[in-house]
Amino acid sequence: MVHRCWINGEEREGEWRYPLVDPSTGEVFAEVAGAGMDLVHGAMEGAGKAFPGWRSLSVHERARVLRAVARSIRSGADRLARLLSREVGKPLSSALDEVLSAASVFDYFAEEASRMSGRIPLLGMDREHVLILREPIGVVLAITPFNYPLSTLSAKVAPALAAGCTVVAKPDEHTPASTLEVARLAAQAGLPPGVFNIVLGDGPVTGRAAVSHPLPRLVTFTGSTTVGKEIQRACADRVKRVVLELGGNCPAIVCGDAPWRDLMPQLVAQCYKNSGQYCYRISRLYVAGGILEAFLDELVRQSEALRLGPPHEATTDLGPLNNAEILTRVERQVQEAVSGGAELRSGGGGVRPRTPGFYYPPTVLVDRHRSSGIRFEEVFGPVVVVIPFDGPEEALEDANASPYGLAGYIFTRDLALALHLVGKLEVGSIWVNRIHQAYPEVPFGGMKESGLGREKSGYGLEEFTELKSVYLSY
Ligand code: NAD
């Protein structure tokens, strides 16, 4: 099987090839035909030529196509979920959830587009009005990571198309298949050729070529903070707009009065979601000293009960990590944490199953003296660091000391304390006393080195537009 770029509504042969490796076996299962400068240029030109036609459709017509895309994704959901599960390594049920949630994001932006409007301020001038118009920004470059290929894709492509922009997407080099399948389904649903194009390849070749191309007016990127900073610097050259959804290192503060035994299944799920390859997952658990030992015993018990296995087996809770590089990085980070003074309470590289896939077990570290650097690093694997605290201010200070500011979690029965912590925690999203799905109606994004701009909601849609002020005398 060879995956090829998708440009102007058809497959295009690549300029070079590389193998795709199955995370659960370590074996090659497909090939990718990658894009260099020529194909990237072809995709950008296709998107540029399609832009005038797409932007001049009525918003209702664009919304009709987006709803048809959502239906088409749902009708192809089983195949999409299998592709996603295999290329990422995530259990089939989680892959299916991701596919259905991507479809609902297309539906949501079909509606949200019709709520977008400009303004006419009440200036009170005689025979004069100022019209504040909104226009689509133009060609959009969407670069996505391997961990949630379709959630991240839909959060970019659906609002871009809804606003009247055309798109060139570059999925992660390890996970091209599900994104290509969405493009095919979108074409079947009636999306005109050139409106949504895909270039395949890695960051250094294809990604850089796309970012440096003069045509895109906006680069919307989800990935690591290091690459996000590089993209922001490259975009400065042509003053392109950037939306950056970057790394996370999310704290949860569990106070002594929280019903932590009832909460434990939610906490455990949020620590290890997607085998820990999830930017919003809990990676630091600040736990009140009075409940620490009982909390740790239960956390370890529930962590060790999770079943590691191949993504296609129904009994699997955690699949493998996506690739060998991530596995090596997680192993190194845990070893360094232990050398830095953290106690390995459960899991770790020593109990890694002896299989050829990239498996790593749920791992609990305890950093009693806040001596280990791991609490401020992003660990993209199933590793949680437990840090005891005496008073909530102490937990807050350490939680905010991280360079990241994506999300946080607060658990206490004292709502006044919770609201005080909400006001002080430097993050873009906070869950208080319960962890539930993020909704398309709610802005999504981080502070500090976790990102710039917001996705989802009306705010996320506005990122794909420019304002134009018209001074009108009559
Ligand atoms: P990554 O930054 O290595 O790669 C992400 C994408 O960028 C891939 O498509 C890659 O090919 C491309 N890329 C790499 N170098 C590039 C370059 N120089 N120019 C242009 N493109 C380039 O990230 P990753 O390791 O694949 O993904 C994990 C990261 O993504 C984590 O840091 C995670 O926190 C973050 N993430 C953030 C969110 C969020 O919403 N904030 C969501 C998912 C993932």
Reconstruct the topology from this structure:
Blueprint: E1 2-3, E2 5-7, E3 10-12, E4 16-21, E5 28-34, H1 37-55, H2 59-75, H3 77-88, H4 92-112, E6 128-136, E7 139-143, H5 149-163, E8 166-170, H6 177-188, E9 196-198, H7 203-212, E10 218-222, H8 225-236, E11 241-245, E12 250-254, H9 260-272, E13 282-288, H10 292-304, H11 324-339, E14 343-346, E15 363-366, E16 383-389, H12 392-400, E17 404-405, E18 407-411, H13 415-424, E19 429-432, E20 447-448, E21 451-452, H14 457-462, E22 465-473
Parallel strand pairs: 1-5, 7-8, 7-10, 8-9, 10-11, 12-13, 12-18, 13-16, 15-16, 18-19
Antiparallel strand pairs: 2-3, 4-5, 6-22, 11-21, 14-15, 17-20
Nicotinamide-adenine-dinucleotide is lined by residues 143-148, 152, 170, 172-173, 202-204, 207-208, 211, 222-224, 227, 230-231, 245-248, 279, 378, 380, 406, 446, 451.
Please give a structural write-up.
With 474 residues, this protein is α/β, with parallel strands linked by helices. The protein is 39% helix and 22% strand. The radius of gyration is 23 Å and the shape is globular. The chain folds into two domains: 2-246 and 450-473, Aldehyde Dehydrogenase, Chain A, domain 1 (3-Layer(aba) Sandwich), CATH 3.40.605; 250-439, Aldehyde Dehydrogenase, Chain A, domain 2 (3-Layer(aba) Sandwich), CATH 3.40.309.10. Helix 2 packs antiparallel against helix 4, helix 3 (77-88) packs across helix 4 (92-112) and helix 4 (92-112) runs parallel beside helix 5. The N and C termini lie far apart (64 Å). It has 14 helices and 22 strands. It has a seven-stranded mixed sheet, with helices on both faces. Strands 9-8-7-10-11-21 form a six-stranded mixed sheet, sandwiched between helices. It binds nicotinamide-adenine-dinucleotide. The site of nicotinamide-adenine-dinucleotide (NAD) has 32 residues, from helix 7 and helix 8.
